[in-house]
Structures are given as structure tokens and as C-alpha cells.
Amino acid sequence: MKKFEEALELSSNKVGGSNPNSLFWLILPLLFILSCEDFLSKDEESHDYKFEHIYLDTGITKDNKGYYHLTLDRNRWQTLYRVRGIVYNDDIPAEFVRFNWESNLYWIIGDTLGYVVKIGLTDQLQYVSYDTVYITQYNGFTVPTSNTASYSNAKGEVSNMIAPVTTMVGDTLILSWEFFAEDKVYSNKIPIVLD
Fold this sequence. Notes:
Blueprint: H1 2-15, H2 22-41, E1 49-54, E2 60-62, E3 68-70, E4 81-89, E5 92-93, E6 98-103, E7 106-108, E8 114-121, E9 127-135, E10 142-144, E11 149-151, E12 157-162, E13 172-181, E14 184-194
Parallel strand pairs: 3-14
Antiparallel strand pairs: 1-4, 2-3, 4-5, 4-12, 6-11, 6-13, 7-10, 8-9, 13-14
């Protein structure tokens, strides 16, 4: 028993006290405080995000009131147009930023979306149409004039397709966009007069 007490006394002298765990409990809080010090002392950096709408040489014009003008193709039901822009994070193009888009204009599909003509071959191997099938299951379906989401690429470029229809001539399409970055929502509207 005496040898055991001598060994215990020797080990406590090496650690620096009567309790061998005292050094451990002294160092542990110091490690925690020192490792957290950088996080507690630094203020979080704030980044400046912005979206620049690009419209020059894209098929639309801008008037002195800030409205954009898109001329609709009267020979087609829908006019397709790609809205373009670049998103920046501290003046550097930002990649993988998700944009949400919404338009104030919609249109409703009538009693037929269109039709399909069934074509077959005669005994002489000539194509003939023998039946017409009308597509009616979409009757009353509401169609948005804008896609709903897109992501920026490595150059910060982001785009969205809009497709107003000919019956909207004279209306103003308000295209709303928003994106979320670093706990903040960025949003705005692009007013497009349909000529």
C-alpha cells in the first residue's frame, strides 16, 4: 500500500497539484476562449449585392419615364423575349444566385389549345391525313407570361423568358424579380409597355 501512495504522490507532483485533472480543467476553458476569440471580436462583413438590367441592343427600348417598350409580333400569338441582366456581389459577378420572377399579366387558354392531324400511309405509301384531334383538356388553364425562376452563371449573367400575347397590346407588363443573399431579400420591378 505504501508503494501505491508514493506513486500517487509522484504523479500529482508531475501534473502540478494534488489533483491530476486540475491542469486539464485549467487548459480546457482557455482553449475554448482562445478558439472563439476571433469569431467574437470580428464583425461580420457586409456584402453589397446588386442587379443590373441589360436592355441595350436586346429588342426593347427605354423611355425618359423609365418604362421599357417591347413591340409585339402581330403575326404570332406569343412574342418571346429574354430579359437579361448581371448580378454582382461587391462589384464582382455572382454565380449561383437564384432569381424568382413574376409577371402581373396572364392569359387563359380557350376551348382548344390546338389540334393534331393524324397522318398515315396509303397502300401506295403516300402520306394522307385521316383524322383531326382537338386538344381540349387545357380549357380554362391560366398561363403566366413569365418563367418563375433562373440562376446566374459564372459571369453573373441571369435571364428570364417572357411571352406576352397579342391581345395584351397596350398593356404594361410588370416583371417583378427578387433574390435572397446573406439573410437579405433584394427585389425590384421592370415595367414593360407592350406596343
